């Protein structure tokens, strides 16, 4: 007798959310089964890899491995963005507005927004703008960005309980997507989506950021909260959690000491370039397996590996 | 599949003595069937019934141990599909392949890297455990010699050959080390099954890429008396292998389907063209149900991320990882270096210590045992109070190491500073930053007094 595998019964579906406009717009979500479980449901849109750039020169913070692929453009966000799209084939671009950090450069919202606008005008792929998680500063910056980039359907992140009214309203007013961000907790993720709904933000304009922990630094928390959100959305009909999920992976992984140690400082850890790339790629594929729909990555080699993985799994 | 309450009832004494805590044997049988009672509660149950029921209540995925001693690998024994439902328990073993047609220098390089790749983290020693030894030519002498050489490293072994003679020679010689015999296929199941029974070694089955073929093999071998089985479905396509691992785990846990209730082995070395992609295959099956994972090589740049991955996925979600209580010296501090105190939640420790390290400012980090709670939670639970921090500071021995009189507490614990000052008379309690990311800035602008 042929073996009959047990299939999971799904009752829900993740909503589709479209980022950007025009030919290069990208739709994520839409699945009716756990990620890559195409033997028992649909995954109409493959998970996507977004590529990050910074709006300030990261040379002082980044290791040689992370800098090398972007030599010559790190101090010019527009050139950097173009390199990502033209040379590395980025399908979604993330601008990390590090220059706005009130504890560092603290550039004005107007200055930050002007750079984001220039980047958004220079490329045709969807843009996600990722702030510094300071409610006051992000509110100022995101309002200015939302206004200046009106019509481009950006995604603005992170939108948290402390600033959702302001940034949510800016997204509503200028028709951008909200990245609803909560600290690794199913209930808080749900609650913020309810609040956004009350504000008038439509379901097709919300992506969940469950908060990302890198390999060795809390990856397991993010991994499990994504699995739980996905289970609630697909098998328990939890309407408010049926949104695609995004993870800011590169920024977390490359912060860790072990991703950056040089061969001189840590010969026992082997080739530093390959180690950093694998730390980033492994974090990404774990979160994709758990159920993430978009992973934001930094290193072109890691991106290549993760895209290859997605292609094989689809 | 488990027995029903009625089936169990037939095996019980039917005296309704009530000593098990419920009034009738039938009620007790129902409780047993639903897992709410333990058979030991019945003082009068017969030996025969015990045996029968024990077989039925055996773990849904059989725990199998490969190897002996320090490097023994126990896999299987898992009870959940998702780690948040409880926890994953037995980390997959990581193996590198060596072959009889490989030159000695290459093999020696792998041995050297196997020994060197050991990393300390949260009080654990992260390392690989296994070698997979492959017979390339059917030469029994060569195969045994290489297997012996690899066994001498202490590593647990997977012996790979489809030649019954060569396998018999190697497995018989090394049977005390309990290597995994790989693998019984449709063609050689009789000979390999007999060898497994005779040698007492665990046996892998290798299917033809279908779960039906695996089921056929495990049923046949179980019938021959082989108990410790590991499953290779034979599939080498990533997507299909992923699907099979999920079906196997579900069949074992949800349906209690015995023929698939065994740990699995993943040949990552045959599923990708280079070590980077093999590492991703390994990571995929660390997350989704691989028991043993074989790679073409050990390289620290690949092992280190995989060790972290394995540790993360197999961490018990109900028990936070903790750092050991004590004084941590960072960047070679001296008697004038600042002293900072934090909790022993491992993530807090990792992040705070790496921020101090990155600042390049020499400092002492005192880690207090807060039972794995973060600063705010520990503070709220009274485990990071002025009194407990004061007692720890006074007793940990830091006073002998410093000349100054300052102690920095986390910004989130600012509330304890008054009480703490009373506990550490003469010392200056300074409230540090709330977020670890501000520590470097703080240390560069502040000096202890």
Supply the number of helical segments of chain B.
Answer: 16
Q: Which structural class matches the secondary elements of chain A?
A: alpha/beta
Question: Quick one: CATH superfamily of the largest domain in chain B?
Answer: Dihydropteroate synthase-like
Distance between the termini of chain B: 70 Å
Q: If you compute it from the alpha carbons, what radius of gyration of chain A comes out, rounded to the nearest whole angstrom?
A: 19 Å
Greatest interface: A-B, 45 and 53 residues
For the secondary structure, the number of strands of chain B is 17
Low-confidence stretches of chain A: none
Order of adjacent strands in the largest pleated sheet of chain A: 8-7-6-5-4-3-10-9
Largest sheet of chain A: 8 strands, parallel
Helical amount of chain A? 40-55%
Keywords:
heterodimer; A: 314 residues; alpha/beta; TIM Barrel; eight-stranded parallel beta sheet; two-stranded antiparallel sheet; 11 helices; 10 strands; 40% helix; B: 449 residues; 3-methyladenine DNA Glycosylase II, Chain A, domain 3; Rossmann fold; 3 domains; three-stranded mixed beta sheet; 39% helix; 17% strand; flat
Describe this structure in words.
The complex is a heterodimer of chains A (314) and B (449). Chain A is of the alpha/beta class and 314 residues long. Chain A has a single domain (44-313), classed as Dihydropteroate synthase-like (TIM Barrel), CATH 3.20.20. Helices cover 40% and strands 14% of the residues of chain A. Chain A has eleven helices and ten strands. In chain A, the strands form two sheets. Chain A has an eight-stranded parallel sheet with strand order 8-7-6-5-4-3-10-9. A two-stranded antiparallel sheet of chain A has the order 1-2. In chain A, helix 2 (77-86) packs parallel to helix 3 (109-122) and helix 4 packs parallel to helix 5 (164-174). Chain A is globular and about 60 Å long. The relative contact order of chain A is 0.15. Chain B is an alpha/beta fold and 449 residues long. Chain B folds into three domains: 5-57, 3-methyladenine DNA Glycosylase II, Chain A, domain 3 (Orthogonal Bundle), CATH 1.10.15.40; 64-313, Dihydropteroate synthase-like (TIM Barrel, Alpha-Beta Barrel), CATH 3.20.20; 326-445, Rossmann fold, CATH 3.40.50.11600. Chain B is 39% helix and 17% strand. Chain B has helices at 5-11, 25-33, 47-56, 104-116, 140-151, 164-173, 189-199, 211-224, 238-254, 275-287, 300-313, 346-359, 375-380, 386-395, 417-423, 439-445; strands at 64-66, 73-75, 93-99, 118-121, 124-127, 130-134, 156-160, 180-184, 203-206, 229-232, 265-267, 292-295, 326-330, 339-343, 363-368, 406-409, 428-431. In chain B, the strands form five sheets. An eight-stranded parallel sheet of chain B has the order 10-9-8-7-6-3-12-11. In chain B, strands 13-15-14 form a three-stranded mixed sheet, with helices on both faces. Chain B has a two-stranded antiparallel sheet with strand order 1-2. In chain B, strand 1 and strand 2 (73-75) form a beta hairpin. The longest helix of chain B is centred in the middle third of the chain and has 17 residues, at 238-254. The model of chain B has no long low-confidence stretch (mean pLDDT 93). Chains A and B meet through helix 7, helix 10 and helix 11 of A and helix 8, helix 9, helix 10, helix 11 and helix 12 of B.
